[in-house]
Design a protein that fits this description.
By secondary structure, the chain is an alpha/beta fold. The chain is built from six helices and five strands. It has a five-stranded parallel beta sheet with strand order 3-2-1-4-5, with helices on both faces. The longest helix has 17 residues. It comes from Mediterraneibacter gnavus (strain CC55_001C).
Length: 163
């Protein structure tokens, strides 16, 4: 059984992320979407909220599992008994960073391979950071994220404006 991990912050999950998830789960037997809890970052959504949004967005994909994690990706891969990491690439700048991470992970865990998928052209510009910025100014993010995520974003931004 080929199990792969698609790790990320997913703050929030976008159609670009979902594109990679849908394409990846056709290649592997099981795809574990690892939701990173990174103490160095101040995410908009909690890990629990991000897991919930991803579970809702992928509920029709029977071989996808959403699992929160913290720490090194290689340790999470061992824990999940996975030997493949899936990463999406939007631009050459993504490749430079992802190649470095892939080589580092491979050095630390020689059995761990990284598979790069190029983002579908319609999502090549899309990032969670851009979506958060649009939402912060009250813009319509419905073309970038699932409806449920757009609602969560709107509620989160309204709550932030009240503070």
């Amino acid at each position: 059984m080929l199990r792969a991990i698609y790790p990320g912050s997913f703050d929030p999950v976008t159609y670009g992320h979902l594109d990679i998830i849908r394409r990846s789960c056709k290649i592997v037997d099981e795809l574990v979407v690892g939701v990173l809890n990174n103490n160095a970052k101040m995410p908009l959504f909690s890990v629990e909220e991000r897991v919930k949004m991803l579970e809702e967005a992928t509920k029709d994909l029977t071989n996808v599992r959403i699992v929160p994690f913290h720490g090194l990706l290689i340790d999470f891969a061992r824990q999940m008994d996975a030997f493949v990491i899936i990463r999406g690439l939007r631009a050459i700048t993504d490749f430079e960073y992802e190649l470095q991470m892939s080589q580092t992970n491979h050095k630390l865990e020689p059995d761990l391979e990284t598979m790069f998928l190029t983002t579908s052209i319609e999502y090549s510009y899309l990032s969670s950071t851009t979506v958060r910025e649009i939402a912060a100014y009250g813009g319509d993010v419905s073309q970038f994220v699932p409806e449920a995520v757009a609602g969560e974003l709107e509620a989160k931004m309204k709550a932030k404006r009240r503070v």
